[in-house]
Amino acid sequence: MAEDNELQRLKEQRLAELQRRGSEDEARAKIEREKQDALRVILTPEARQRLTNIKMVRPEFAEQMELQLIQLAQTGKVRLPITDEQLKQILGKLTERRKDITIRRI
Fold first, then answer.
1. How many CA atoms lie within 13 A of 25 on its CB side?
2. 91 CB-near residues (< 8 Å, 6+ apart)
3. Cβ proximity of 65 and 54 under 8 Å
4. Which residues, at least 6 apart from 51, have a Cβ–Cβ distance to it below 8 Å?
5. What's the CA gap between 58 and 22, in Å, rounded?
6. Domain ranges for the chain
7. Rounded to whole angstroms, how far apart are CA atoms 14 and 8?
8. pTM of the predicted structure, to 2 decimals
9. Which CATH architecture has domain 2-97?
10. Is the N-terminal amide bond of 81 cis, ω within 30° of 0?
11. Rounded to an integer, what distance in angstroms lies between the CA atom of residue 8 and that of residue 11?
12. Which tens digit of pLDDT belongs to each residue from 1-50?
């Protein structure tokens, strides 16, 4: 009897965990869909392709870039849609700011 109760309790915990994860996954998927919909409006197809290519190589950087582009569009700081050339300029400005660190061996 005690083992049955323990087993039932574990099953209930596992079910609750799976339901919680499922709702978190759904929420993440919804946010991603909304972000992609916004980027379709903000970027031209060529610019979106460039961002997709960057995402394959540097996913964290591309994620930051996507959020910054959405923020720029929401605040009205850029004219829409952003073309591939404009995206290149924005990328150039962002990579300029980055400090390159070099290590020299003595």
1. 6
2. 54, 65
3. yes
4. 39, 43, 62, 65, 66, 69, 87
5. 27
6. 2-97
7. 10
8. 0.69
9. Orthogonal Bundle (1.10)
10. yes
11. 5
12. 677 788 888 888 888 888 888 888 888 899 999 999 999 999 999 999 99
58-92 b/e with 16+ CB inside 10 Å = b?
eeeebeebbeebbeebeeeeeeebbebeebeebee
Ramachandran sector of residue 27 (left: φ over 0; alpha: ψ -120 to 50; beta: rest): alpha
Q: How far from chain centre, in Å, is Cα 49?
A: 15
Contact between 7 and 46 (Cβ < 8 Å): no
Q: What is the pLDDT of residues 39-89, one digit of tens each?
A: 999 999 999 999 999 999 999 999 999 999 999 899 998 889 999 999 999
**DSSP per position, 3-71:** HHHHHHHHHHHHHHHHHHHHHHHHHHHHHHHHHHHHHHHHB-HHHHHHHHHHHHH-HHHHHHHHHHHHH
